[in-house]
């Protein structure tokens, strides 16, 4: 059955919004340089995971409102409407709904949270979820097996972003009793727990979607208090929370326009927690010694290439010529004063999945040769590059244009101020040659985002890259039973990535959820989200 165009556009828009939000973008008052002394990026300066010195807090203190200077606003608390990541309002959703599973960032494994247990069959095609006894939604109704199945069906029917992952794989869900759900999959899926740690695992109460208007009713530590769009969202403590009454009275989310403003608020105490992605600001925050969780993602700074017929990128020689000409280090020097994590590898040296397979490399002579061959066959060498209008995006546009033109391309800039317009042009209208973005491949589940950006049928693949060999490698990655097998498949993906150049990678990114020394009990989880049910503020 073909999906309706409206459904496709909505899924594409959700995926696109995440890509735009996680591309290390900055606001007009932030750093960025287009000239002056160039600096080389320091490598090995970060330790990922829990960092900074968190003083012993002693006995938890009850009361108070925790102020979170978040990265982006969750315009809706519906998990089917908001892409649940730390960069797109996911922490607010997690506060309202909790998650069935949680990613333990220290142990590198998924552990039960709202769930009591999750067991897999030997072939990873059948997963049995057991729920905790006595868990209730904030409206007093039980969070049971029927509610879980109903919520996930509702999520898919309303085209939540991860429907693109679930629909092809989830054959059926059965409630064998009130506390047990059996998921039967069409394919082996070793990291299926990730789905239950993200938006599909944010279980909404049946009453939430029973009426014409969605109501945010979950089993999380907080409930919606008030919401003033573009100003603040306040969540009140759920006194009947399954882990016990929260220590905090409330959570207050605001969305400062720049990461620099968030760091300043954290420094002066007007914010208790801040989420930052801009490389220069993250670097300053880490050096300042703020406690928090530093998260690494691959493909955090990339150039999306339109592979469609009639576009320059349809020619492999053109794609490879671009990749051989674009220097990640120079891009980082000009845009972020050398504070990023430049590189062509899908997984950088800091990653647990770093491959021994070398990336394509920079070779201007070979780039010129490939471009000359394409021109001999009729290509005129013209490219249009799309990016934003803020100072850093302009800096990236200028250096990208210069690097491509030094090998013979003629580059026209298409700088679009609205993220919504960039989203539409890239993911819905496909009106671009090359465009800046990000895939933000996580350390916890590399399959998720690689499947989205490289699979031939994925709505999250705006360049329409298609290769049956890559599709097959992604199937193998999905079913990889252990880290050794996962690494082998990722090595093969890097090899094919070098050969095919589906997109051009310019580096990884580091995101930092930092908090004050008097803030305790924040629990990091998947997709750089945080859980606040046990958080408290010391005196």
TrEMBL record:
SUPFAM superfamilies: Periplasmic binding protein-like II. Pfam families: SBP_bac_5. Residues 109-459 form the Solute-binding protein family domain. Residues 1-28 form the signal peptide. Gene3D superfamilies: Dipeptide-binding Protein, Domain 1 (3.90.76.10), Dipeptide-binding Protein, Domain 3 (3.10.105.10), Periplasmic binding protein-like II (3.40.190.10). Keywords: Signal. This is ABC transporter substrate-binding protein. It comes from Streptomyces lienomycini.
């Amino acid at each position: 059955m073909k999906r309706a165009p409206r459904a496709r556009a909505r899924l594409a828009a959700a995926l696109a919004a995440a890509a735009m939000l996680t591309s290390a973008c900055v606001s007009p008052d932030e750093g960025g340089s287009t000239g002056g002394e160039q600096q080389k990026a320091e490598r090995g300066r970060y330790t990922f995971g829990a960092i900074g010195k968190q003083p012993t807090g002693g006995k938890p203190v009850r009361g108070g409102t925790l102020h979170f200077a978040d990265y982006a606003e969750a315009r809706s608390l519906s998990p089917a409407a908001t892409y649940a990541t730390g960069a797109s309002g996911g922490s607010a959703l997690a506060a309202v709904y909790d998650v069935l599973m949680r990613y333990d960032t220290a142990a590198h494994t998924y552990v039960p949270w709202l769930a009591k247990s999750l067991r897999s069959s030997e072939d990873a095609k059948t997963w049995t979820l057991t729920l905790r006894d006595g868990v209730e939604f904030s409206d007093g109704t039980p969070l049971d097996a029927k509610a879980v199945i109903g919520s996930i069906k509702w999520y898919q029917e309303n085209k939540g972003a991860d429907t693109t992952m679930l629909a092809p794989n989830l054959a059926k869900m059965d409630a064998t009793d009130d506390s047990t759900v059996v998921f039967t999959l069409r394919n082996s899926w070793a990291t299926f727990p990730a789905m239950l740690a993200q938006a599909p695992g944010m279980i909404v109460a049946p009453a939430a979607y029973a009426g014409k208007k969605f109501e945010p009713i979950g089993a999380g530590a907080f409930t919606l208090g008030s919401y003033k769009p573009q100003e603040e969202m306040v969540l009140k403590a759920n006194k009947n929370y399954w882990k016990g009454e929260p220590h905090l009275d409330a959570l207050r989310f605001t969305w400062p326009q720049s990461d620099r403003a968030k760091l300043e608020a954290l420094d002066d105490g007007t914010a208790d927690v801040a989420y930052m992605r801009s490389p220069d600001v993250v670097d300053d925050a880490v050096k300042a010694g703020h406690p928090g969780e530093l998260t690494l993602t691959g493909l955090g700074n990339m150039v999306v290439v339109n592979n469609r017929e009639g576009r320059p990128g349809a020619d492999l020689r053109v794609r490879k010529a671009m990749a051989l000409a674009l220097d990640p280090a120079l891009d980082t020097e000009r845009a972020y004063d050398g504070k990023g994590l430049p590189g062509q590898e899908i997984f950088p040296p800091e990653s647990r999945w770093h491959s021994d397979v070398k990336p394509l490399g920079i070779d201007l002579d070979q780039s010129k040769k490939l471009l000359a061959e394409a021109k001999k066959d009729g290509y005129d060498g013209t490219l249009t590059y799309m990016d934003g209008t803020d100072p850093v995006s302009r800096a990236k546009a200028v250096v990208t244009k210069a690097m491509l033109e030094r090998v013979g391309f003629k580059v026209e800039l298409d700088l679009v101020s609205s993220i919504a317009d960039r989203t539409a042009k890239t993911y819905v209208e496909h009106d671009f040659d090359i465009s800046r973005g990000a895939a933000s491949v996580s350390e916890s589940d590399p399959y998720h985002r690689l499947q989205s950006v490289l699979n031939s049928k994925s709505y999250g693949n705006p360049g329409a890259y298609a290769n049956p060999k890559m599709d097959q490698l992604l199937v193998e990655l999905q079913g990889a039973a252990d880290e050794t097998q996962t690494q082998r498949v990722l090595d093969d993906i890097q090899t094919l990535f070098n050969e095919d150049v589906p997109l051009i990678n310019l580096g990884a990114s580091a995101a930092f959820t930092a908090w004050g020394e008097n803030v305790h009990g924040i629990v990091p989880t998947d997709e750089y989200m945080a859980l606040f049910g046990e958080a408290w503020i010391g005196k």
